[in-house]
Amino acid sequence: MVSPHFTMPKVQILVANAAQARFFTVDSPTGDLHELSVDVNPDARLRSEELGTDRPGRFVDSSAYGRSAAEDPTDLKDVTIERFARQLSEKLDLERTQGRLERLYLVSSPPFLGELRKHLNDNVKRLIVDEIGKDYGQLAARELRKQLPERLK
Known about the structure:
This protein has helices at 48-51, 76-97, 110-119, 122-125, 141-147; strands at residues 11-16, 20-26, 33-40, 58-60, 67-69, 103-108, 128-132. By secondary structure, it is of the alpha/beta class. The strands form two sheets. The protein has a five-stranded mixed beta sheet with strand order 3-2-1-6-7. Strands 4-5 form a two-stranded antiparallel ribbon.
């Protein structure tokens, strides 16, 4: 027998940029957002110089005079942003495997959205209903809700 009651899928909205990520849920397709958690990446707000250096090692080249860098330097700010995107993608996959995520809306600054996409596994990617390439990280839940589709599936 089919239940006459509508069952809302477990919808989450991730609102993120390189510095912070806010996870929201809704109780109904037109309902208000409820904040579940906030993850912070404080290193994203620092300049690369403030994070330290990742200067490459040096070696002596026997066929030439002098020393050479072993590899190109790595921008530590990029490394922290990539690490944060990977952590968020792992969190989303955990939410999925624990049955708390069936539909996903991604709202993110365009550069971070691209980084996040690189780390999402195929199981989480299949749950994405919509992506919004805007940085709404500082909006209150009520204002953020106005930026989303009227009906969340």
